[in-house]
Amino acid sequence: MKVIVCDNYDEVSEKATQLVEAQILENDHSVLGLATGSTPLGLYERLVEGVTLRGIAYKNVCTINLDEYLGLEKEHPESYRTFMSVNLFDKIDISTENTYIPDGTFDTAEEECLRYEQVIDSVGPIDLQILGIGKNGHIGFNEPGTDSKSLTHVVELVASTRESNARFFPSIDEVPTYAITMGIKSILKSKKIILMAAGKNKAEAVKTLLSKDVNESFPASILWNHDNVTLIVDRDAYELVKS
Ligand code: GLP
User: Fold this and answer.
1) Which of 9, 39, 180, 223, when mutated, tests ligand 1's pocket best, judged by the most ligand atoms within 8 Å of its CB?
2) pTM to 2 decimals?
3) Known catalytic residue at 236
4) Which domains does the chain have, with CATH numbers?
């Protein structure tokens, strides 16, 4: 795992932007794996700017998102489909049919999981996967204890994740209890992975990750089994790591 320590969140976003845009310039048919959450917002803002400022074209790019809440309509203000449309897809020249996000309204979610894994394999492999990290080490919605060989699956969100995400909903009761997420093995199929972490509230998670204890009780640690991972972290999130 390559570790890049940045001064602040803006620099984390800047560094990630450079790597994503380099990927697209290398291959304009790249497949990007995308994440939601607050962490990649600065990256998405810069990718939008890159269309006009740097002439980056998304016409042939495909995107595959990590996860989606179960039970939210695509149009729900807090669905991850809406998040991606508002923060990125509606502002760049990407075709909606090239953007893949699990369908959280599927009658039989297990069938949707199988279909989605086939998307990952047929549209992918993902060239570059963007990840954030949960305070408990979750990646996507792979909560502690998730099998490292897991493919796309339905997950029951743990209380701490629902509490963290409650800030986006009118009340915690409205945060969905279940989600569909790419599994750990699905994520590891990506050719390259960028894990972004910023802020003091991620410092414990970054410290645990960099202790190199590979353990399913801390899902992000499984990334040590992949040979092309770059952690981009700011000083606040890095502050508990002993140098
Ligand atoms: C969410 C998402 C993850 C994200 C994580 C951290 O639950 N499913 O993909 O990485 O939480 O979110 P944030 O970036 O807002 O801290």
Assistant:
1) 39
2) 0.96
3) no
4) 2-238 (3.40.50.1360)
